[in-house]
Amino acid sequence: MRYQISGKQLDIGEALQSHVKTELGSTVEKYSQRPTDATVVFSKNAHEYICEATVHLSTGLTAQARGVATEVYAAFDALQEKMDKQLRRHKRRLKDHQAARTTAVEFEAAGLYVLAPEEEDESTGAEGGDAPTIVAEMETRVPTLSVGDAVMQMELAHKPLLVFRNEKHGGVNVVYQREDGNIGWIDPRHSK
């Protein structure tokens, strides 16, 4: 597994890097035999240390966790506990949901745009032009998943929504976290 361990305005020593590689590696390999890479970032906010990690699995799924504590090692330990819990749940769901995924998740490139909020013209009180201002233009990846896998990926990544290509019919779908706590699923193909 490839590791990228860094600190935001914080010096990360060899001992901490070694500790992260051994402990995170053993946690991830316990539940997933084929992790590809992990990114771990340490930062400090006032008197607290924050440790955030993203682990990419060979199935295409991503697990994210965050730990906060007053000591840097304790912040990593809190993160490791959360990552362990997430990966254990993920493995249990995979066993319940499907025996084994025969192929890796496919990804398709897609455009990702960040738009500036519309501003009103002070002299007329009218909103700006017809086209919104593009602040950033990037590329993202859209995975091809089943609906169940998409919900699992959204929960693992702690995201409010996930855009994916439905592996049954190839159409673009969205799953999202509703305000009432349930999961919503948008499938434009089934609209009438």
Automatic annotation (TrEMBL):
InterPro entries per UniProt: HPF/YfiA_ribosome-assoc, HPF_long/plastid, RHF-like, RHF/RaiA, Ribosom_S30AE_C, Ribosom_S30AE_C_sf
CDD domains given in the database record: RaiA
SUPFAM superfamilies found in the cross-reference section: Ribosome binding protein Y (YfiA homologue)
Pfam families noted in UniProt: Ribosom_S30AE_C, Ribosomal_S30AE
UniProt KW keywords: Cytoplasm, Translation regulation
Top-level taxon of the source organism: Bacteria
Intracellular or extracellular location(s): Cytoplasm
Domain Sigma 54 modulation/S30EA ribosomal protein C-terminal: 131-184
Protein's job: Required for dimerization of active 70S ribosomes into 100S ribosomes in stationary phase; 100S ribosomes are translationally inactive and sometimes present during exponential growth.
Record text on subunit structure and interactions: Associates exclusively with 100S ribosomes, which are dimers of 70S ribosomes. Interacts with 100S ribosomes.
Family (UniProt): Belongs to the HPF/YfiA ribosome-associated protein family. Long HPF subfamily.
HAMAP family named among the record's database cross-references: HPF
Protein name: Ribosome hibernation promoting factor
Organism encoding this protein: Thioclava litoralis
Lineage start: Bacteria, Pseudomonadati, Pseudomonadota, Alphaproteobacteria, Rhodobacterales
